Amino acid sequence: LSIAQQTASASAARFHRLELAGSAVAAYRDDLAWVETVRHAVLEGRIAIHAQPIVPACAGDTGLHYEVLARLVGADGEIVPPGRFLPAVSQSRLLEHFDRLVITSTLDHLHRHPPLLAATAVCAINVTGPTICDTDFPSWLDGALSERRIPASRIVIEITESESIARLDSALGNVRALQAAGVAVAVDDFGTGQATFDYIRRFAPQWLKIDGSFVRAFDTSPLDREIVLSIVRIGKALGARTVAEWVEDAPLAERMREIGVDYLQGYALGRPMPIEALAVPQPSAVDLRPPALAVHV
Q1: What distance in Å separates the CA atoms of residue 65 and residue 120, rounded to the nearest whole number?
Q2: Helix extents (H) in the chain
Q3: Euclidean distance between the first and final Cα of the chain, in Å?
Q4: What is the DSSP string of 237-277?
Q5: SS3 180
Q6: What confidence score (pLDDT) does residue 30 get?
Q7: pLDDT tens for the chain, residues 1 to 297
Q8: Nearest to 262 by CA among 295, 224, 291, 234
Q9: Given the DSSP bridges, would you call strands 47-53 and 64-73 parallel, antiparallel or unpaired?
Q10: Neighbour tally for 5: CB within 10 Å
Q11: Residue pair 93/125 in contact by the 8 Å Cβ criterion
């Protein structure tokens, strides 16, 4: 019945004929069971916070820069990647709850580890469309930061550009409130979603993250190369810092430096790792320039 209802709601036709094999029904039941499993894990707070380094393209920028990446922890302790559990979180209508869980878990970790907090220049955290449209979000985040005595200037909120934002006016108001409070805003996956240039014109983000699909094809596709170059120019005109994603080898990292990208992120600079594994640099010996090739397992 549920499959039939979904089929009908996705079509303008008045009548449908639906024939299901037993295997299709079994697969659908498995999907429903997985959604319920993920729902319980999120409500129980079973997540692990990972981090991936974001490395300045040129020497001179000190401090740790990293993006927070959440993983779900299964009942058996299995670490579940986002591609497997995020669709189920969305189906469970728990995206806002999940976003706040990731933020509070990250802030709690920083509060409990003063050396990491002191070394952190940028901690970037993703939020989904429903959260950036939630009118209570800026005041909630301000309270969460104040409670843990974490400077707002250390936090960057990443908005996934390809994600649908249902209430643009609410999102714009929240972005302005976050920026006024000292929290920087980044547009993630830049270049892949809807109304790309309208987003940056209205949001005026401090960070632009160039989608990795363009970066990875920089050497093989003239069109992708021009897209990357245009985003770099837009970033400079906006006064925003640019981050090239999916930088997977040293030659590509060098080319991103040459065209004026500000920061690099990808396997050539460091794989996602448990946040506890982040190396805290000593103030007297900070050097975050990317090596020729450094892959962290």
Answers
A1: 6
A2: 2-9, 22-43, 82-91, 95-112, 114-119, 129-132, 137-148, 168-180, 196-203, 212-216, 222-238, 250-258
A3: 46
A4: HHT-EEEE----SHHHHHHHHHTT--EE-STTT---EEGGG
A5: helix
A6: 87
A7: 777 777 787 778 888 787 777 787 888 888 889 999 999 999 999 999 999 999 999 877 789 999 999 999 998 899 999 999 999 999 899 999 999 999 999 999 999 999 999 999 999 999 999 999 999 999 999 999 999 999 999 999 999 754 567 788 899 999 999 999 999 999 988 877 654 677 788 899 999 999 999 999 999 999 999 999 999 999 999 999 999 999 999 999 999 999 999 999 999 999 999 999 998 876 543 343 443 333 333
A8: 234
A9: antiparallel
A10: 9
A11: no
What's the confidence (pLDDT) of residue 193? 62
The answer to whether the CB of 184 falls within 8 A of the CB of 152 is: no
Q: What are phi and psi of 70, to 5 degrees?
A: -90, 145
Q: Helices 95-112 & 82-91, crossing angle to 10 degrees?
A: 130
- Going by C-beta distance under 8 Å and a sequence separation of 6 or more, which residues neighbour residue 5? none
CA distances from 25 to 2, 5, 15 (A): 10, 14, 21
Phi-psi region of 149 (alpha: psi -120 to 50; beta: other; left: phi over 0): left
Label residues 251-267 b or e (16+ Cβ within 10 Å = b): ebbebbbeeebbbbbbb
| Residue 188 host element (H or E) | strand 184-190
Using DSSP's 3-state secondary structure scheme, residue 53 falls into strand
Amino acid at 124: A
The answer to whether 54 touches 67, Cβ cutoff 8 Å, is yes
pTM: 0.86
What backbone phi and psi angles, to 5 degrees, belong to 78?
A: -65, 135
